[in-house]
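step: validate -> pass
step: tokenize input -> pass
step: predict -> running
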Amino acid sequence: MLDRRSAAATRRRWTVSRYRALLRTRGPKSVQFRTRVSVLAGAIAIGLVAILFAEAADWAGGWFNGYAHRYHWLSLLTTPLAFVALVWVTRRFAPLARGSGIPQVIAAADDPNRATGSLISVRTAATKIVLTIAAVMSGASVGREGPTVQLAAAVMGFTHRIMRVPLRTPVVIASGAAGVAAAFNTPLAGLLFAIEELASAYEQRVTLLVLTAIVIAGMVAQSVQGDYVYFGVIGASMPLSSALLVVPVAGIVGGLSGGVFARLMLMLAVGGNGLTRWSKANPIVFAGACGIVVAALGVATGLTWGTGYSAARAMIVGVDAPLWFGPAKFLATLATAVAGLPGGIFAPSLAVGAGVGNLLREVFPASPTSAVVILGMVAYFAGVVRAPLTAVIILSETTASRGLMLPMFATAFIADAASQWVCREKLYHGLSRGFAMPPEPKPH
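step: predict -> pass
step: emit ->
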């Protein structure tokens, strides 16, 4: 009897101690619990912040379109001046906010916790939002998707700091991908972007918590904005006989064009040539020159301002567009990207790709117009970013053209190979070298 009572007491003591141990390791005060809360709260916040940023950027684009229509020639003065002012402010107050934002997140993944005070700090992200909106209001050929990636990483870093838990590399990758998911309303594209682009230089393992963060951010954006399709429900398709002709041509032309853009971008941003050295020594003057190029193209064409969303959508649905749109938008986007302004190249690249598809329409007049334009967009985007799976999923989800999936996959992989003939280094990873954090000093 005594032995049974002793055994029961021992079991009770063991149960209480085990309960306390479980509470320490998995309870509300545990690192595991706080990490989960910070990731899930960050994902929800990313979805909401991305929506607000998108609304502000769209308003800014609409405002500039009205301004350019009313004061057509005045843009030749105001756009270059805005470029000069934005580059000066960026270099003076937030140098880590320049450019797309995706290279910063790639660089931040090397040391996430230190990066929350620099590359993905709240101050850097907030400044980038304001300056990107100002860039859109100036007529620059920029998109909001790249900045959303940096903003999303900063939001996730902020929630981790509040909960006092370390920020890990997979979570930084997930937060950046969640930004893509929320920006395009495409959760699957965000997941593939995490695996294919952001994580390609790091670990390929994506945990369940990371997947959850990406999906939650996309679903929050979808819940608030509704089940909208970025370019509208196109539902394009293409017969196999046409695809056999169009796919290889679109893949090679679009891939080479995208590779040329990436090569020029890297050469002018991180190269060692004379023009790059001069631009680094005279950044304000160089920004003004880039602004003159963008303004001249915008005033002459009336179509190359801003993201190019309206022009791209018009070409997708079959509206006739001038054949020079693609080359003109290419130059406007390149001039904007190398000027040093905050702003992304996702949306402008899709617009250039639509211009490539518009040129291919003349070569394949018997093929479905929408399908040819979409294949041009897939090819050019894959050539620039070198993320073929992401390119396919983004275009399939933003146009609801799932019947075109097989031709899009073939086009994207051909474009990826063609792009490497021109530019071996991936664009964002090459640009991330300019944001590499110095090694942490060792204590004496």
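step: describe -> Residues 31-70 form the longest helix (40 residues).
step: cleanup -> pass
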